[in-house]
Specification:
The chain contains ten helices and twelve strands. By secondary structure, it is α+β, with helices and mostly antiparallel strands. α1 packs across α8, α5 crosses α6 and α7 crosses α8. The longest helix has 24 residues.
Length: 304
């Protein structure tokens, strides 16, 4: 997956501003926040299906592996499929960005070309006026950042909606949680200039967002979302949940151990001390081993 501008990978994606140190901001991405902070119950069933399909469709690839190799191959099936889809999405996003920036057309595979043509159809059908594309946005107030695929206006009948924020998707469906990324982009404080220093204001009050699901046959599905205060509250709550690991790392810090732990520790220390005090004595017997050596046994007694 392509790393966005001003971003680095830690336990999740983190954005830096200014880009060169010293950094004023080092904040989690909107995708990391929604990924860690929003339950995705359907994912476990999708992952199970990926493994089952791999086990059946690719059985010749793993039946001659040993047990450990086969388990590792099968359990990684969901990640292989995820990464493959991410590569397609990255290629499509890059092609759209190049088109909107009047750059040279990028080479695309057949399926990628279909998605790209779907984006062009959306832009033409709705007389879209793009104000910014692939814009990196930051929120100082709330401590997050992300990439808005486009800030735009509809032409024709949709012109009264004002400025909107849009998100391209190449998934099989549009999920409501994508609205969280849209509202986060709309409520950010500034757009980061590619120079890594200059800041630009977010273009106006944005009340609506649109997720544009592109299809491999050159079509699209535009799903609008009302970007309400309540929706933004859910995003901020997800940010708190996503940051739970940081809290968990700091809570086991009592200045003294609880009493029950002290008791267990004392018992263990007493056992070790008792063992140190024991005197081991070797006593011969009348028996011998197969080599004729006398068999000895040891006896532990309290040392004098």
């Amino acid at each position: 997956m392509t790393q966005p501008r001003f971003a680095r990978q830690r336990s999740g994606r983190e954005y830096l501003w200014p880009f060169l140190p010293p950094h004023e901001l080092a904040v989690p991405s909107t995708t990391t926040i929604t990924g860690k902070g929003v339950p995705k119950d359907a994912l476990q069933f999708w992952a199970a299906k990926c493994v089952a399909e791999c086990a059946y469709d690719r059985r010749r690839a793993w039946t001659n592996m040993d047990r450990g190799e086969a388990i590792d191959y099968l359990k990684r099936a969901p990640f292989r499929q995820r990464d493959k889809k991410a590569e397609v999405g990255d290629a499509v996003h890059s092609a759209i960005e190049a088109y909107l920036g009047n750059e040279s057309e990028l080479p695309l595979e057949k399926i990628e070309r279909g998605y790209f043509e779907g984006a062009l159809a959306f832009l033409v059908d709705n007389e879209v006026e793009v104000e910014r594309a692939e814009a990196t946005v930051f929120s100082r107030r709330h401590g997050y950042a992300g990439t808005a695929d486009l800030f735009f206006r509809f032409g024709g009948d949709g012109s009264d909606l004002g400025r909107l924020v849009g998100d391209w998707k190449t998934a099989k469906a549009v999920y409501d949680e994508t609205a969280l990324q849209l509202v986060a982009s709309a409520r950010a404080d500034f757009i980061a200039d590619p120079d890594g220093v200059t800041e630009h204001a977010i273009p106006g009050d944005i009340e609506y967002g649109v997720t544009i699901r592109l299809t491999p046959d050159g079509g699209y599905e535009a799903v609008p979302f009302h970007l309400t205060d309540e929706l933004f509250d859910i995003f901020l709550a997800a940010k708190v949940v996503a940051g739970r690991e940081t809290v968990f790392r700091t809570i086991r810090q009592l200045p003294i151990a609880p009493r029950h732990q002290q008791a267990v520790k004392s018992e263990r220390e007493e056992a070790r001390e008792h063992k140190r005090k024991l005197k081991q004595t070797m006593i011969p017997t009348d028996m011998t081993d197969i080599d004729g050596n006398p068999i000895m046994f040891s006896v532990e007694s309290e040392a004098a």
